[in-house]
């Protein structure tokens, strides 16, 4: 058994690697920071291959797949991602494009390539890490929210295609709310609500994936938020979302 995880050097990716290794899975771990990957490798129980790659570069995604296509991978976890905070007309365009390339293009490319292999052998799991941000628009994190909506809707559509074809391949979207990871430091924000522990989210996500859940939402708060959000007018949701994002700066 073998799992392939992007964004594996920290946070949920790192914790999923530890959990899957404890379950007996050999691992292929991908991130930009080799030192972090080396440290993680030393702590794991199973065979581990590490690959340094910047998934914001399109060619790197294809090269990565070519390196591992013959490894008989059973699980693909598209976890790499980042965010850019600020008003849309003020944020750095190049940072946003890099985010879009990582959050959307890399997920799209790797999902398509691995899905073809999984369908050929009629087995495999794909987990695309989206976010609770995928359920609504997000003023001040507009591009990030939009990127995660893409991941969620793409995953849902593929799920239905697989179901109708009778395939045994399973795909799911992980949609957590705030999680204690490095995301807030990279995006230069502070979460306005208490985040879940990364280990808890990783354990819950993997358990639900193996139970063939489509949309995985850890934590009671995010489940309630998603449910009641369906009943609010769109403009009211936008006002609430802006207020929540503004609090991340420490301003009122």
Show the helix and strand layout.
Elements lengths: L1 E5 L4 H12 L3 E6 L2 H10 L4 E5 L5 H11 L6 E4 L14 H29 L3 E5 L12 H24 L4 E5 L8 H5 L10 H13 L4 E2 L3 H10 L4 H14 L5
Parallel strand pairs: 1-2, 1-4, 2-3, 4-5, 5-6, 6-7
Helix pairs in contact: 1-7, 3-4, 4-5
Describe the structure concisely for a colleague:
By secondary structure, the protein is of the alpha/beta class. 51% of the residues lie in helices and 13% in strands.
Strand count, sense and barrel status of the largest sheet are: 7 strands, parallel
The geometry reads as globular
Q: What is the chains' assembly state?
A: single chain
Widest β-sheet, arrangement of strands:
3-2-1-4-5-6-7
Radius of gyration using CA atoms only: 18 Å
Give the count of helical stretches: 9
Work out the helicity level.
40-55%
Q: What's the overall average pLDDT, rounded? A: 88
Strand % is 5-15%
Question: Span from first to last CA?
Answer: 50 Å
- Which structural class do you get from the secondary structure elements? alpha/beta
- What series of H and E elements makes up the topology? EHEHEHEHEHEHHEHH
Low-confidence stretches: none
How many runs of DSSP E, i.e. beta strands? 7
Protein described:
This protein is an alpha/beta fold and 252 residues long. Helices cover 51% and strands 13% of the residues. It is built from nine helices and seven strands; from the N terminus they run βαβαβαβαβαβααβαα. A seven-stranded parallel beta sheet has the order 3-2-1-4-5-6-7, with helices on both faces. Helix 1 links the parallel strand 1 and strand 2. Helix 1 packs across helix 7 and helix 4 packs parallel to helix 5. The longest helix has 29 residues. The chain starts with a strand and ends in a 5-residue tail after the last helix. The mean pLDDT is 88.
